[in-house]
Amino acid sequence: MRIGRLMLMLGAVCVGLMPLTGATFYVQLVSKIMILAIFAMSLDLLVGSAGLVSLGHGAFFGVAGYAIALLSPKYQAASLWWTLPVVLIISAALALIVGLLVLRTSGVYFIMVTLAFGQMLYSLFHDTKLGGGSDGLYLYVRPTSSIAGYQPFDLEKPLHFFYFVFVIMLGVYVLLNRVRVSPFGHALAGLKVNEQRMRSLGFPPIPYKLGAFVLAGTLTGLAGYLAACQFGFVNPEMLSWHYSAMVLMMLILGGVARFHGAIVGAFAYVLLQEMLASQAVFGAIAKHWQLGMGVLIVLSVLLLPNGLTSLLDRLSRVRLRQNS
Amino acid sequence: MSTTHRPAKGRRDFLKAAGCLTTAALLRRGFAWAQASKIKIGLMLPYTGTYAALGSAITNGFKLTIAERGGKLGGRELEYFTVDDESDPAKAPENTNRLVQRDKVDVLIGTVHSGVALGMVKIARETGTLLIIPNAGAAAATGELCAPNIFRTSFTNWQTGYPMGKVVAERGLKNVVTITWKYAAGEESVGGFSEGLTKAGGKVVKELWVPFPQVEFQALLTQIASLKPDAVYTFFAGAGAVKFVKDFAAAGLKAKIPLFGSGFLTDGVLEAQGEAAQGLETTLHYGDGIDTPRNKAFRDSYAKAYKSEADVYAVQGYDTGLLLGVGLDAVRGDVSKKHELIAMLEKARIDSPRGAWTLSRAHNPIQDIYLRKVVGTQNKVIGVAHKSLEDPAHGCNMKKT
Amino acid sequence: MSGSLEFLVQLLNGIQYGLLLFLLASGLSLIFGIMGVLNLAHGSFYMVGAYLAFWLARDIGNIWLAIPIELAMVLLIGVILESALFSRLYHRDHLQQVLLSFGLILIFEELRSIFFGDDVHGVPVPPLLRSSIPLTGTLSYPVYRLFISGACLVVAGLMYLVIQKTRVGMMIRAGSTNREMVQSLGINIKLIYRWVFAVGVTLAALAGMIAAPISSVYPGMGSQILIICFVVVVVGGIGSIKGAMISALTIGIVDTLGQVLLPEFSGAAVYLLMAVILLWWPQGLFRVA
């Protein structure tokens, strides 16, 4: 396993040092990927740890984005230190309400009900004046981190924003891993495998699943907040099932069982997309990059059902055998 | 011969290699320098979806101007970076960013969909890149969000709807129902029409909305029939326009209730609409049969180059080339001279196929709005609905430099 | 036009939309119910049907000849896809089915882009059905829409006959309740699955074909209709054709009336309906045992 962990740490260092190359476009791209990685990790808590596949998770992402866009005054910066907690609380509350309702179903019906809630919120934002309709809403100035005049960092600068997101991503990773090995996490794992048995052991499923749902929703809200800040723009598509399915794709690409799978998956998916769509590499067929993407997805489901990180495991196992 | 010679040979080889590499590096820089003399144009337009035909027409019009000037503007050649915006506001900031940050374009040209254009406007304001809008009529681009580096060669949605209000009211059709897509362009077009209508003594009985880009109108057509208004005003464009006009006729409404619209309802789509569009009257800043030598020459060369009829979108693309040409010629192709370039653009008087026009202080065309009627496969100009109409540019605080 | 007449016409609009949804959803319900496969690419077959109609109407001209040819083509595609891809997923979890079919959606969209381009196209109504029936002084009802409703009812009737009254139907019904038992009785369940899949997607393509003249063909049309389709299937109860019919009609009417009465909330209304129904009947209205 040590080889795998070494590679991951190397990857983290590479990402952390990436801004030194200077190209602003790529710094912004990696920031975007890291935000998606946070989204993917929190979804992994539901899908991987609790076995709940949600196609409506984008709702929390989008609602949080709209929340910060609506909370910010039009041409001024809102304060980071109160808007972020408020948005997180809103996400948690929404997750609590939705969770209480959807967790009454299970299996494929759970997938459908989460889809329904996601689309319902999407329709609300798309069709009504609530958030600027189908054209979306703009966030003209990013939240400021200043407290009483002192500004520790300026989110308007791509570099500062990059490291802000980087630190948060690592924080979320550590937090989720802690949760996984905690008693709560173990109970979730047990419920995923055999709910009946866990119930007979005195573990009622709903509180645990609800807890996971709320935590996942809150962390996704965090990702939504950051996403709104990054491009200064929110629109109903963030809430659509397409977006949720895309993030699920990242999970299966990276590997559902582990949280670094989500991070690897996010990087793999976006970088693949950039490469396939790049005219520099593929010229005229770059226009049809979705074809290549679709084929890759089909192949990865058929051949790599446990994602890229399973390759990592195989690699470490091989090395181990060689050494002994 | 023996080992004593080797280090010397090695050193010579090394020097040779170093020399080669240095020369190559210098030469590459030299080539790069030669490359840099091309002006980078970023084209962000829809090439898929309901507005695909519009994106192509604008591109064709623009490239026609360039071809007419021998492929150069301001003495320099152009290098194009194209992005298909899919008329999707969700991806607008990202796509624009790609052109501005990664490809480092000097000039941004785009787009058709108003929501997408607002994304481009935002990035243009933040980065100061010169942006010319060849279609999108969102009022904010030359209103609330106006900026020195943002220009428009097309129209505002208000401009194309307002004159029709007066036309309709003056015919004694006072009670009107409006129907359009619920997004910026639709809302503003209907808003302009309502303003013109109420000023002339009419009234909007009901406003009907369709989510963009849906084209299923059956339920709303039934509702229009039951409301029995004097007239219907609509804004749809592209494939939506085709469907609406055909459905309106198929529901038997065409014969009973007069339909009016801004010109996009019938521009570029007449062939697809066929019989259903005959006799429809619309207002727009362009029309077929504008009997000037300038228009005739333009239409001929467009038809020769692209084997299809020019429409308002092609004219807008063409005028974008003209406007950019005026500016770049004045600064001899030196895009870094932003201030001068902008000053020249503001003063420009464009001799366009639609008629001559100048820019308002908010950088939007001041132009004649024609009244047109569909006859055969043409939008024949039957009069001028409003002369030299200037968009009020609410909220624009820019002073003319 | 009086209020009650308008209401009736809107009801007619809603029923027509609902019947079309039924045609689309019935295929999905069969595949889902009998094989347990969650196929997100079902909407793509709707799009395939529509584009084929556009293509063949343009090149062959005679739409009555075109339809059987198109149906045969889609049947073949369905058989190939099932044997090559979906048959491997029967024992895998839903997440992988969702993702594989999502990948298929992307592939279908791009193939459509390569073969047919990205413009929106209209499909002409067949000359025979081009007239409109005047209903009131101002409103006429297009005959073609009545044709669509009629066609859907015919297909519904055929489906009912096949599933309830034939041996094949009996095998299908048995296979949905107990796969192993059916296999041990010597019936080739694999073959049944293959054909159920192929017929299911062909029904989707048929829906696309007959709807094309009124909906236009455009990129992304499959994804749009897919969600509503899933809502219909889940509300009706997975695997139940009767449920699919009732829920399709309900949703068609709710959506149509919603557009008129509460235009801003009509989109959300359908999902709200689904959420409410599922919370009280977690397995749909007419769940199959």
What does this structure look like?
The complex is a heterotrimer of chains A (324), B (401) and C (289). Chain A has helices spanning 2-17, 24-49, 58-71, 80-102, 107-127, 158-181, 183-193, 195-200, 205-231, 241-254, 259-277, 279-282, 289-303, 308-323; strands spanning 137-138, 233-234. With 324 residues, chain A is mainly α. Chain A has a single domain, classed as ABC transporter involved in vitamin B12 uptake, BtuC, CATH 1.10.3470. Chain A has a two-stranded antiparallel ribbon with strand order 1-2. The model of chain A has no long low-confidence stretch (mean pLDDT 85). Helix content of chain B is 43%, strand content 22%. Chain B folds into two domains: 39-155 and 290-359, 3-Layer(aba) Sandwich (Rossmann fold), CATH 3.40.50.2300; 158-284, Rossmann fold (3-Layer(aba) Sandwich). By secondary structure, chain B is an alpha/beta fold. Chain B is built from twelve helices and 15 strands. Chain C has 289 residues and is an all-alpha fold. Chain C has eleven helices and two strands; from the N terminus they run H-H-H-H-E-E-H-H-H-H-H-H-H. In chain C, helix 1 (3-35) runs antiparallel to helix 8, helix 1 runs antiparallel to helix 10 (241-261) and helix 2 (42-59) runs parallel beside helix 4. The longest helix of chain C has 33 residues, at 3-35. The relative contact order of chain C is 0.20. The model of chain C has no long low-confidence stretch (mean pLDDT 84). Classes of the chains: A mainly alpha (324), B alpha/beta (401), C mainly alpha (289). Chains A and C meet through helix 5, helix 10 and helix 13 of A and helix 4, helix 9 and helix 11 of C.
